[in-house]
Amino acid sequence: MSLKTQVESGIKDAMRAKDQDQLRALRAIKSLILLEETKGGASGELSADDELKLLTKAAKQRRESADIYKAQNRPDLLEKEEAELAIIEQFLPKQLTEEEVTAKLKEIIARVGATGPSDMGKVMGAATKELAGQADGRVVSTLVKSLLA
Predict the structure, then answer these.
(1) Do 103 and 91 form a contact (C-beta atoms < 8 A)?
(2) What pLDDT is attached to residue 42?
(3) d(CA 93, CA 135)
């Protein structure tokens, strides 16, 4: 079942349950999907990879907004962002723990033959492809820096 179908089904369920947080988050996802499908040069259908990128971007936006609201002491807005983030994460693949990411990065470093900080670009290129949607880019970058230091 495609992401769009899952989201539309979730919207119907949220409407029946009168769950405003879930409804708002699902409508935002649907909006992103429709915008992506109709933008210039698009085929009208999204691949699974495109859907993953879309969800990852939406989750990242929610995390950044939540951080800002936390820093500005706005618990009302923070709560909304965290609720939407939780719903978006239901559609994302399971996030890897820091230990699992470190293990995968060690494999990638060995495979690419990286020896020092100058090889960070090679490692990050391979890591972002392999860990797409499974780990936050900031975490991956930080771990790569520490492993190559």
Answers:
(1) no
(2) 63
(3) 9
The CA-atom distances, in angstroms, between 11 and each of 15, 51, 54 are 6, 17, 18
CA angle 27, 52, 12 (to 5 degrees): 25
pLDDT tens digits, residue range 72-105?
999 999 999 999 999 998 888 888 888 888 899 8
Helix (H) or strand (E) holding 145: helix 137-148
Shortest CA distance to 86 belongs to which of 99, 95, 97, 73?
Answer: 95
Predicted model pTM:
0.72
Nearest to 54 by CA among 91, 81, 15, 79: 91
Half-sphere exposure of 140 (CA within 13 A, CB side): 23
Closest alpha carbon to 106 in 147, 139, 137 = 147
Tell me if 126 sits within 8 A of 109, measured CB to CB: no
